[in-house]
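Submission sheet (multi-component)
Chains listed below:
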Amino acid sequence: MIIQLKKNIATSEKEAILNKVKSLGYKTTEVKTQQGDYLVCIGKKEFDLRQLGHMAGIEDIHRVSDDYKLVSRKWKVNRTHIDLGDGVTIGNGSLSIMAGPCSIENEEQVQQTIGHLVKNNVRIMRGGVFKPRSSPYAFRGMGVEGLKMWHTLARKAGIKIISEVMQVSQIEAMYDYVDVFQVGARNTQNFNLLDELGRVDKAVMIKRGISGTIEELLYSAEYVFSAGNEKLILCERGIRTYERASRNTLDVNAIPILKEKTHLPVVADPSHGIGIREFVDPIALAIVMAGADGIIYETHQKPEEAASDGQQTLNFEESEALIRKLRKTFDLRISF
Amino acid sequence: MIIQLKKNIATSEKEAILNKVKSLGYKTTEVKTQQGDYLVCIGKKEFDLRQLGHMAGIEDIHRVSDDYKLVSRKWKVNRTHIDLGDGVTIGNGSLSIMAGPCSIENEEQVQQTIGHLVKNNVRIMRGGVFKPRSSPYAFRGMGVEGLKMWHTLARKAGIKIISEVMQVSQIEAMYDYVDVFQVGARNTQNFNLLDELGRVDKAVMIKRGISGTIEELLYSAEYVFSAGNEKLILCERGIRTYERASRNTLDVNAIPILKEKTHLPVVADPSHGIGIREFVDPIALAIVMAGADGIIYETHQKPEEAASDGQQTLNFEESEALIRKLRKTFDLRISF
Amino acid sequence: MIIQLKKNIATSEKEAILNKVKSLGYKTTEVKTQQGDYLVCIGKKEFDLRQLGHMAGIEDIHRVSDDYKLVSRKWKVNRTHIDLGDGVTIGNGSLSIMAGPCSIENEEQVQQTIGHLVKNNVRIMRGGVFKPRSSPYAFRGMGVEGLKMWHTLARKAGIKIISEVMQVSQIEAMYDYVDVFQVGARNTQNFNLLDELGRVDKAVMIKRGISGTIEELLYSAEYVFSAGNEKLILCERGIRTYERASRNTLDVNAIPILKEKTHLPVVADPSHGIGIREFVDPIALAIVMAGADGIIYETHQKPEEAASDGQQTLNFEESEALIRKLRKTFDLRISF
Amino acid sequence: MIIQLKKNIATSEKEAILNKVKSLGYKTTEVKTQQGDYLVCIGKKEFDLRQLGHMAGIEDIHRVSDDYKLVSRKWKVNRTHIDLGDGVTIGNGSLSIMAGPCSIENEEQVQQTIGHLVKNNVRIMRGGVFKPRSSPYAFRGMGVEGLKMWHTLARKAGIKIISEVMQVSQIEAMYDYVDVFQVGARNTQNFNLLDELGRVDKAVMIKRGISGTIEELLYSAEYVFSAGNEKLILCERGIRTYERASRNTLDVNAIPILKEKTHLPVVADPSHGIGIREFVDPIALAIVMAGADGIIYETHQKPEEAASDGQQTLNFEESEALIRKLRKTFDLRISF
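Outcome: structure written.
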């Protein structure tokens, strides 16, 4: 059960509600986000909602049968959209395109990528400065210095930044320079990181775990939301299966299923989803047709020289062609 | 290596080629299909193709590095298309739509389904008369009698029939009444069945195994082709993964990968691919955008009363809406 | 519900029972096996078993909540054991060892293998004469001629034969020469083959599907049993997962789970289960400790020259050492 | 390539080596652990090892063809064993048993568990005070206060403590109270956590990821080792597959494979590996027979009242019976 409190609720009113809920045998978590104050009440006993409905200070009450609550569409039918400022939004009924290199490498690369994005009216740039790598001996990214350089150039061009955060201590260091914190597939169930991102007033995009279920992804979002941040985006990026012909198996089914289960925006990553450059294009279009709110993919001026993931990265020409097709595909979809 | 022989090759010419190939250390399989005569030569020794190229009776020679040979695009760049007669083809650059119930149940059902297909200009009807069921106590289909009834009604309406064959002994019984034999996911590696279907002059659609790899699907097609039948269609239908929110995980990646690896037409089945009625529509559109040559899905006049698979079956209204969207999506794709 | 009928039941008594069951809303399958006559009744309505219990001709009645019935331990608590004659049994409380080459290759190989088995008091020899191969160009086995040669040599030495049957038409041809028909992992859900094996009076060992569930394996056994053959053995042989360090992932969990769910003997195959020769030994011992009734593995006089699966095949020296350890491990287990 | 440096190497000697290695086109990571100083050199150029072998300050040089280096047995053939003090070691050729509850709940529970362990001469107790939970509303553990209470009681009884650390900030808080830091399956690729644990002088046990490969587990260990801590233990705990009859699929194959690939001790967790209380016993014995150095499982005085994981937790009677069997099984194994 989710109880949405009135903005101006009196302390005595809130206490009365908490006592009442407790007397019904429910355990309550208080959640205060950018948009509202909620009580998430967990319990099993059946009772008549009207026992609560008349109490002062309550805006709204919803039963939510799912085990995740705040991210469920059973509570909030209206879609959430994320406003990044300067007219850039995610989940407002248009198609969000996020593109850029796997790793931020140097100023020239960033400058060229920004040029490519501006030319094609893409407003959000992806790029990694902290890189999770299986081997400790691989390139681990430029760190915060790279992020600052990137931020300076992006701001001038009106471009928003999405970048992966790998641990709690990086949040503060990155805070001033990112518009969206990305939680990577290896950290989807890093619950401490999720908790901390719940205390931040910036958007968070959570990638599905390497072999995470759809339900686990929703629970991970519930962590962030229940800790105070409802600016959330979910990202399908392929799962690990037995098939070896592709890097991962993009779970296209997850897109309509997530859109049914949650009010949060859902995007997908065809670059990681298939892992083969020449097939990123058809998979990206399939993602749009399946109902995604956006797409995040890798592009680089010279993929064959990229510091990481070159084999799944489009060059700018391919990226430009894809953007054109993505928009036409999206236009067709919303015409249905 | 594949050697395509001339139509009018003399016996002595063929023997000379066979001897030459043998002397090079290669093992040869003679393949005679509806379209041509081939020698598939398996061996490892490197040699100069010109040693063979000048020999009488040879139309064409191709090296094929893949382990599957006849189904590989490395040998045959031009796409194969399957002509079912009466203007119905698969893989000729248009979108093939195949629809119908999971199981053939009775005459009225067939009549109504045919009416729905004719109305929407769909020319191929799917339906099962032999049903593979996990439990021996479940409904196993109407058998050949059902097929004959269906065939009579379908022929009148100009509708082609695709239906699953489960074992060798059914091939002859079904032969006069089907246009496409379907090999189901549990029989993808039933090699005896594949061998026998290679001796038949009817199209064969092979579904990917329940957890079959893309490569295994290609090998299964190679079985049929090398036994003499090149009228082949491949079908992606979802694979088994750990995810429980959908019945199967439709492997949308498989579509562009198969189109790259083989010259055979590639279709996909969104009904089994996701297994949830309300999401068949977006997944079907995604399949088209990913590059499929066709789509096969389940529709029934009253899905809630279907003898099997009702939970993933569209009613005719939903089916009609989907057909309209499929065609618009396909038109957009080929405009790119 | 399973109704076991009396051996000498009168036709009129049986009809009375069938009518009564029908009147209760249950659908009945009559099953006649080597051991008994059963009525398997499928339905949902609750009723008092005593309505049937007093009827003439009934030996025993059991409710079985599982969807598989005849193979369930909820019906038959006592373990089934399979008597192959000449003092060779499976599932009678001793450890059954089945060993031999992947493929039967020639007389000398068979003779040497038999010598190895006799020396070590192993009574059952495995070997393939029909080989399911992904590629149509690979070695497909010696066929029935090889089986006859093997049978002649084995009979002289008192050795029993287990060999894979791939299709219905092979059953009759193999019948006189095998003691146990093996259903391979690619045929676990070849329902027509299972049906036909239900009509045979020889033991059948069913291997778990390549990515088959434990429940599907039980259903496959139910097919054979309900068609009339209760001489059944189940075999865990590794499942397909994402892990690439081994050929398959032996699901050791399946052993105690199967032993809990069914009264049939359960064996496992470490050779396919891990696929790496040097690790067959520890995995075989683990299988015994997990509770298996037997083990089936590959051995060959010269594994490096074996026609197939050499990489997972023990030589005779390794095999002999393993047999010794298997027996000591089994002795320890039953001492607990 | 791994260069082990002499303990008393002079700075000038080390610089000479570093320069030489650099001149050969190799990238070097300096690693200083409790046991030694190493240079891990990554590069591809072939050269004659003798160019380095004669240089002053070098103890030993090994080529390691694996991509992980320091944890590879290709470098260090002798098994690593971990000394926890007071005669408690892991990996020294005896069987290490670690048992205890999923979650530390209260003083009485800890006291009773310690009593059970002491009675059975088990020296290492497991228990969680920080619990990773899918849902933010579930019990998250007693935290450091619970750990301190546990530590006080354990020290009196001569019991060592293994407990999960979930994030970098907990390392310092837990340091004085644990003997082995456990990295859980959701954190196997939390690279920042691994890096930090490399800077600690306490043993670390890394659990395999929920769907982690064997290779990824080795790389994760390489992270800790290369950051300075070679007191490492690897733990197989079941992987995520499609099978739903058990919680996870214990990958028993991983045990001999890991023992072949690494010199680190390998243990396994049957409680998580199968997730069903009544089957923990046979799976635990299978693990021992497969070659594990130890076993970690869950036990609780009243499993049905445990705060978490009760369905896979043994009571003390079952635990005592298991310990007895584990030791007999291990004795048999080492007698082979």
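Remark: Chain C touches chain A at residues 211, 240-242, 244 (CB under 8 Å).
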